[in-house]
């Protein structure tokens, strides 16, 4: 009999896909069932991770981060959140919902920056201490639609983001890797069309979660 996957769900996808919205909706559904939930984000989720998030997202004149430094800063944030937040929460039988995790490194530093996938998988293994999500949603969105959604955000989100400012070709490579991950791991990685309404996306996500975890 197949064992039930760990109650660790990650949300992936390019900028503008609506990950934060869908995490809030799923969190609300679980809480309504009386299920304890921890929500984290990457980079972030811990005091160290939030400091690293500021460094990684900053876009200002004269501020540069080489691809190798970017990779290790993301890994440092992940190592910290696994040991300080995600691991303890799972041991206490909480649900953990994460806005990005190890697949982001494969997509962004692999597809986007061109680092070799075997190297990234090895580094992820160390950073994650062997921890893998039980279920991953890739909110699939085209690069033009993602850019359009970012442009429509309110003034509070208008500050330039270093990664959001990458060219369209970068995000097309990122999307390609996510789709390949879903092909390689269909039981864990589920592609969800994020160009539909938030309500339609949330309904599909809940249907999958209910089925996978027997809710």
From TrEMBL:
This is Thymidylate kinase. Keywords: ATP-binding, Kinase, Nucleotide biosynthesis, Nucleotide-binding, Transferase. Residues 11-205 form the Thymidylate kinase-like domain. One of its GO terms (cellular component) is cytosol. Phosphorylation of dTMP to form dTDP in both de novo and salvage pathways of dTTP synthesis. Belongs to the thymidylate kinase family. It holds the Pfam family Thymidylate_kin. PANTHER family: THYMIDYLATE KINASE, UMP-CMP KINASE 2, MITOCHONDRIAL. It catalyses: dTMP + ATP = dTDP + ADP. CDD domains: TMPK. It is an enzyme of class 2 (transferase). It comes from the Bacteria. Its EC number is 2.7.4.9. InterPro entries: P-loop_NTPase, Thymidylate_kin-like_dom, Thymidylate_kin_CS, Thymidylate_kinase. NCBIfam families: DTMP_kinase.
